[in-house]
Known about the structure:
Blueprint: E1 2-7, E2 10-13, E3 18-26, E4 33-39, E5 46-52, E6 58-60, E7 68-73, E8 78-83, E9 92-99, E10 106-107, E11 112-117
Parallel strand pairs: 2-11
Antiparallel strand pairs: 1-3, 3-8, 4-5, 4-9, 5-6, 7-8, 9-10, 9-11
Amino acid sequence: QVQLVESGGGLVQAGGSLRLSCAASGRTFDTYAMAWFRQAPGKEREFVGRITWGSGSTGYADSVKGRFTISRDNTKNTMYLQMDSLKPEDTAVYYCASRVARSDYSFGGQGTQVTVSS
């Protein structure tokens, strides 16, 4: 089982930047991919982006493409989400998730709150 801890959230003005971190521990040796999701008040959780752990290839939701960048540090078992040009609609609790090959994503952290003021 993988334990995930998100950090780095906060309050920022529109147009600003934040970097989130997701530290993984436990059974990480067979991690295939990790991803970021977010959930705004009153809305369903939505996919933000993902990174394949081995190759480092990334994919993003259209709503964040060109503004958000996912990276990872394999030596630290940590994934990052660099968020630039933030908009009020990016306000949400951000969660990270991981998965092994041929499985669904598993969540485990408490999430980190990101609030973007207009």
